[in-house]
DNA sequence: ATAGGGTTAG
């Protein structure tokens, strides 16, 4: 009773008074601490339990494993896995599912997979956890294959399982697959819970179709703050700031209280649509009316907002005066703005602060800085940066682009020649470029940082994965149908121009999902207003 | 009076 009311101190008092504790009393106490978020007390009680009992039971173990998951304490997780082994409980489906989930959330997919593969009996939850694990660790494609395998083995999914499948589609941005999954959900008459509905909104939005996302939204009887935030975010990253603001007002009118994430979504929406004043107003409203303390993400949105509008000094002083810890994304936003406006000095300052944080994708930031130097014609500095990168063995993350054709996903990666039609595609791309150039396209070799001649630079631009994917898409899909591509990095300026001309010359709608947002290309223009 | 899986940003 006490643990149910989060009165864990009282519960512990009573617990200490019990002379002969059985496994049930231990598990209630451990679970009580776990529910309350007291991970130190939870682990301590668990240790006492192990010491006093002959062996731990399979009720208590999942509880502590879950705490390891929530705190991503892999070390503790592995220790508990050893205990599980020692007592031969690794084939218990409850314990095993908890372990798989813990490994996945700690991003060690190999251990999750080994655990899953060696299990004797897998039930719905175990499969669901593993499907989620693959998505979590960046193999959404694998997740969808697992879902097929699960069905082959006769396991019938429920709505929680479907949330994980829907998430995999969202991560992939695979529209055909999304439609198939949607049909499946409708056909099997799953109860459209708030969570499943919200996940589907997110899926459609991330597959590039806000309209379908909205249809789901409209049909949902019950919506929570997450549902509204997902819809607002969707309009935001599709560059439809006006509608994001409309939905935000509607949300307030229904009496729904926005949270910290809602404000990140709406601020982000403002920045992507260049609605500076609206964004700044919301930033103060958030603090004054809703008592939401701005975190580093909110500040990043505002820096982005100011930076894109060219108000670099305000952005930079906002960063200087803020009282919370600065992170990679924050400085990255400032650096990005410097790139747009060619502000070399501020870029150097941002890059210096950024690199002090020893970021994981240092290579990316160096490249951004090198881009800024290149634009300013400072080739010596470009060379210096490249040398630094070589010395530190920093590599550029290889760019890839995916396109879904006939329910199959084709991936194009720089330097990867595995696509069977690649030679043909290169020929077609050359031919396409000729047409585009006749229409006015001029390749922008400023985006090539290698110190080679103009002709070589043009050659390098040819290999950009989005160009290959689009060329392939043009011939592999019916005339007039939209082309949807997903890529892992941001579109380069030259490819952005290239795609504009494709939409004009081939008369196609091209929808690009990049690392940050969506671009809808139509009749030679892009929805981002060349601002990304 | 005890156990494992789910949604929004970046």
TrEMBL record:
PPR repeats lie at residues 123-157, 224-258, 259-294. Keywords: Repeat. Gene3D superfamilies: Tetratricopeptide repeat domain (1.25.40.10). InterPro entries: DYW_dom, E2_motif, E_motif, PPR_At4g14850-like_plant, PPR_rpt, TPR-like_helical_dom_sf. GO terms for biological process: chloroplast RNA processing; RNA modification. Belongs to the PPR family. PCMP-H subfamily. This is Pentatricopeptide repeat-containing protein At3g49142. It comes from Coffea arabica (Arabian coffee). The lineage of its organism: Eukaryota, Viridiplantae, Streptophyta, Embryophyta, Tracheophyta.
């Amino acid at each position: 009773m006490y643990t149910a009311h989060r009165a864990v101190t009282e519960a512990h008092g009573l617990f200490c008074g019990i002379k002969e504790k059985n496994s049930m009393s231990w598990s209630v106490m451990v679970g009580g601490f776990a529910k309350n978020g007291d991970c130190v007390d939870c682990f301590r009680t668990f240790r006492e339990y192990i010491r006093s009992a002959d062996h731990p039971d399979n009720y208590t173990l999942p509880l502590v494993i879950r705490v390891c998951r929530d705190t991503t304490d892999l070390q503790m997780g592995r220790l508990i896995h050893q205990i599980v082994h020692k007592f031969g409980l690794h084939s218990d489906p409850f314990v095993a599912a908890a372990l798989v989930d813990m490994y996945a959330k700690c991003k060690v997919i190999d251990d999750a997979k080994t655990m899953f593969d060696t299990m004797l009996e897998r039930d719905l939850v175990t499969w669901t956890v593993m499907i989620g694990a693959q998505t979590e660790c960046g193999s959404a494609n694998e997740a969808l294959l697992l879902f097929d395998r699960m069905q082959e083995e006769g396991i019938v999914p429920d709505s929680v399982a479907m949330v994980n499948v829907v998430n995999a589609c969202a991560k992939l941005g695979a529209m055909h697959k999304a439609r198939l999954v949607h049909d499946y959900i409708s056909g099997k008459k799953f109860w459209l819970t708030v969570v499943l509905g919200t996940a589907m909104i997110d899926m459609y939005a991330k597959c590039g179709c806000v309209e379908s996302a909205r249809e789901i939204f409209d049909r949902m009887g019950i919506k929570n703050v997450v549902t509204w935030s997902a819809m607002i975010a969707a309009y935001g990253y599709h560059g439809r700031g006006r509608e994001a603001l409309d939905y935000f007002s509607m949300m307030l009118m229904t009496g729904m209280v926005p949270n910290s994430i809602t404000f990140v979504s709406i601020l982000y929406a403002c920045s992507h649509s260049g609605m500076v004043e609206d964004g700044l107003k919301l930033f103060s409203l958030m603090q004054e009316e809703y008592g939401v303390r701005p975190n580093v993400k909110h500040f990043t949105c505002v820096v982005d907002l100011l930076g894109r509008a060219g108000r670099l000094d305000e952005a930079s002083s906002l960063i200087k005066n803020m009282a919370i810890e600065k992170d990679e994304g924050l400085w990255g936003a400032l650096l990005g703005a410097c790139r747009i406006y060619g502000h070399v000095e501020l870029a150097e300052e941002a890059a210096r602060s950024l690199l002090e944080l020893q970021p994981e994708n240092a290579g990316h930031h160096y490249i951004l800085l090198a881009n800024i130097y290149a634009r300013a014609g400072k080739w010596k500095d470009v060379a210096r940066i490249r040398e630094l990168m070589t010395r530190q063995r920093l590599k550029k993350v290889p760019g890839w682009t995916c396109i879904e054709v006939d329910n199959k996903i084709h991936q194009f990666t720089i330097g990867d020649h595995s696509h069977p039609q690649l030679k043909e595609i290169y020929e077609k791309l050359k031919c396409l470029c000729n047409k585009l150039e006749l229409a006015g396209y001029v390749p922008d070799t400023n985006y090539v940082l290698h110190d080679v001649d103009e002709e070589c630079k043009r050659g390098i631009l040819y290999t950009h994965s989005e160009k290959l994917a689009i060329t392939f898409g043009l011939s592999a899909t019916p005339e007039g149908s939209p082309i949807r591509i997903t890529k892992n990095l941001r579109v380069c300026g030259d490819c952005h121009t290239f795609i504009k001309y494709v939409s004009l010359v081939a008369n196609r709608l091209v929808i690009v999902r990049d690392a940050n947002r969506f671009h809808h290309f139509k009749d030679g223009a892009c929805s981002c207003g060349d601002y990304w």
